[in-house]
Amino acid sequence: MLEFLENRNLVSFEKLADRLSITKIQRDVLLQLPRLFGSDGEILKRAEGLCLNAKKADAHARLERVYENLGSCGICRSRAVGLRVSRGQWGYYSDLIFRIYVDGALTP
Predict the structure, then answer these.
(1) For the packed helices 10-19 and 24-32, what is the interaxial angle rounded to 10 degrees?
(2) Is the whole model's pTM more than 0.85, yes or no?
């Protein structure tokens, strides 16, 4: 599943999601994640509605605070948030990794 997300193979990702033992709501939320990329906080607003429990809502609140802090520091005027999975060199983590891209930064 992670490989499909990393390679943006959304057709195979959806087919695999159809075979999982999860509720329809969980499936719908899962299928939204790779499509959540944008700027100006719009993606975080959309993502807030996808939090299915308190743990996810807490993680979202922390991510929102990071996004707001980046904006208030004065050097990050243009920010984008991508909520799709990306492991790469971070493959040793067992949870999702979210990246925030900052215009003018050397690396994401």
Answers:
(1) 160
(2) no
